[in-house]
Amino acid sequence: MLHHHGGKPWQRTDQWWPMHHTVKRAKLDPPISFHGLRHTYASLALMNGVPMQVVSENLGHADTRMVEKHYGHLAPSHKRDAIRAGAARFGLVATSNVRPLR
């Protein structure tokens, strides 16, 4: 998503100074780190229905295991939604007066 000047790969601490100056200019209190922004992105994306696979790829993970482990509780139940969406194909209609707690 972000490119390093000159096309070189990002090193572990290359983001520190730009992030430090940006947070200072924005007068963020408390300040946030680049790592905190990653957590914020992942949390908000999943809570708003972005598929776990997409979030995982955007974070640079090889698969969804890390996202499931740390953020899985924030994602709506994709299995439940998929089953309910496909139920009509089998002639099943989900009728219930049970509502999820919020």
Describe, in plain words, how this protein is organized in 3D.
By secondary structure, the chain is an all-alpha fold. The chain has a domain of 61 residues. 48% of the residues lie in helices and 0% in strands. The chain has five helices and no strands. The longest helix is centred in the middle third of the chain and has 14 residues. It is elongated, with a radius of gyration of 19 Å. The mean pLDDT is 82.
Element layout with pairings:
Blueprint: H1 16-26, H2 34-47, H3 52-58, H4 65-71, H5 78-87
Characteristic terms for this protein:
102 residues, mainly alpha, 0% strand, single chain
Fraction of helical residues: 40-55%
| SS summary, helix count | 5
Mean pLDDT: 82
Task: Please report the distance between the alpha carbons of the first and last residues.
Answer: 34 Å
Query: What global shape is seen?
Result: elongated
Q: What low-confidence regions span 5 or more consecutive residues with pLDDT below 50? A: none
Short structural summary:
With about 100 residues, the chain is an all-alpha fold. Helices cover about 50% and strands about 0% of the residues. It contains 5 helices and no strands.
